[in-house]
Amino acid sequence: MSQFEKTDITQLSDNFFKRIGSQWMLVTAGDSNAINTMTASWGGTGILWNYPVAFSFIRQSRYTLEFLNANDYYTLSFFGGEHMKELSFCGKHSGRDLDKIDATGLTPVWDGPAPYFAEADLVLVCRKLYRQTMSADCFLDKEPVRRWYADNDWHEIFVGEIVTVLKRS
After folding, report:
1. Which of 64, 131, 151, 162 is at a distance of 20 to 30 A from 51, taking alpha carbons?
2. Which of 91, 93, 89, 95 is nearest to 63 (CA)?
3. What total of structural domains would you count in the chain?
4. Which H or E element spans position 144?
């Protein structure tokens, strides 16, 4: 099992454009009874309301949304390229149909307010600050509506305060 060190977020030099957009991340939430995870390639990090934040987009149809709605904390886990197969699997399968964590062999870690994975090399532990459903009326450019939401499976936007940064030591 990997060892993690708490890291000051201002000391990170990670390129989150690359990390999220190309290498993906697992969004994970749950409690001692059940957890679920999903792969995400949309999102970002920054400063909002004087908090260090991560923002994540979860479609209404995703099983993981139930877990995010039911819990105050969630994690964003980032991995090296050797785990793309597992992340791809978690993006193509629903936790409603099978235990994705068991199927991928990933190891959940429970040492904080939300689960993450021992195989990750970076974890952002987030406390939910804000949630909103996307709406066609709010788009100034309607092309994304036509391209991504023709089926009306809108994303829920989550803004989470990054309360802990864990980096593999």
Report:
1. 64
2. 95
3. 1
4. helix 143-148
